[in-house]
Amino acid sequence: MKVLVDTSVWSLALRRKSEALSAAEKWIAAELSELIGEGRAAIIGVVRQELLSGVRTAEQYEKLRAHLHAFDDEPIDRADYEHAAKFGNQCRAKGIAVFLVDILICAVAIKRGCAIFTTDPDFAAYAKVLPIKLHQPRKSL
Prior knowledge:
The protein contains seven helices and four strands; from the N terminus they run βααβααααβαβ. The chain is α/β, with parallel strands linked by helices and about 140 residues long. The protein has one domain: Rossmann fold (3-Layer(aba) Sandwich). A four-stranded parallel beta sheet has the order 2-1-3-4.
């Protein structure tokens, strides 16, 4: 099964220095590395944009952009945006605030049968309303 990786995980693994990571964060980065090695890590374009935004130097930008070139964006069509809007409305009706990128990730993951790998606690709230699967790092790598 493919795993749609959220900005929070990519950022942790690709934008932060490994010596600055906690043990739990290193575990998450190692899991992403495993998913990449297995050919199961997936990305959508807006996540790519979030990752490349706010990079401080042109050199860092180009290095990150080159790393991400190894991954094709999952295609997103009109139905994905419509489902995202519907899912956002469902969450809001249950009192859950939504963020547009997050809910688009949910819609794409549901449609393609992917799990979502994230460190963002908002996705646990979405999972109470939406049929999303959250990927957990494996016990042993």
